[in-house]
Predict the structure.
Amino acid sequence: MKNIRLLLLLGIVATVISCSNQTVTQSTDPASPVSVENISLQSIRQYINTTGTAKAAMEVTLSTEMAGEYTIATNSATGRPYKIGDKVSKGQVIIHLEDEEYVNNIGIEAVKLNLQISEDEYNNTKSLFEKGGVTEFEVRNAEISKLNAQKSYQTAQSNLDKMEVRAPFDGIIVDLPYYTIGTIVSSGTQVVSIMNYSKMYMEINLPEKNISTIEIGQKALITSYTLTEDTLSGVVTELSPMISTETRTFKGTLQINNPELKLRPGMFVKADIITAQKDSTIVIPKDLILSNNRGRYVFVVGNNNTAEQRRINIGLQNEDEVEIVDGLTRNDILITEGYETLRNRGKIAIVQ
């Protein structure tokens, strides 16, 4: 009987010790330190990324139309001869050619004088006709003489203009081959290259899977690998309907706005073509999302300072962010640091 009582007593003591140990273990379970942030509504853009080389929208290499002695014109903005990097305006003379014999043969002054005489004769004849002093036939002949004189003057002036090389548009000199002043250069000699790259373009090749997503008129964000802090705007202007059988891609063109000339011709750039956009929606960093065999989830702050595992469904996404279409509300507090080792309903300690 005493043995039975002793066994019962030992059992009770063991149970009390076991319960005591469990209580201590539970009370000393450490809380995981985490950082949090309140969820707010934001905007998000979904992109298709591509790369390419930026090229000037307007560029030209000018050649001489006539032979003559080479001279570089003076840049009125600097007071010295033009050089590479100088800005030019449409119509400005960059290169002069001198050929005295050619100019004399044109005889521009005589042709101009003949035009003035013809115009005066026509006006006088017309005035006399109105007074009945000449016939209509004489007026017509005077008009024909005036028109022929105008044509001769225009031809002479055009031939004279061939002795000058002018900028066809506003731009910047990007190449100016060297010739000794006074050297006779032949007709067809390349003497200057000009670019206007306030607007640029880039040719793109996109995967076949994107052909139903990309449309003309879609905007793009343009960044250069050498100018990482500057973002320029662009727009899709051309798209080919044909898929390459070799690369399984299709071609397109992006126009780039470059008003401050930060982007230079020939730079390698990245284009993020905006294919979808939403405003005032729940957006979180992409790297906060975890997954298991049940799907995607994040951790939010639950009751009594615990971590609550929340299943989510996503919408738009890009390289850094993702839209949450189901599973989170504006009232939730998202755990942003220390979430990697959390368990559902585990204790947490919020730190700043």
Q: What stands out?
A: The first strand starts at residue 32 and ends at 38. The mean pLDDT is 90.
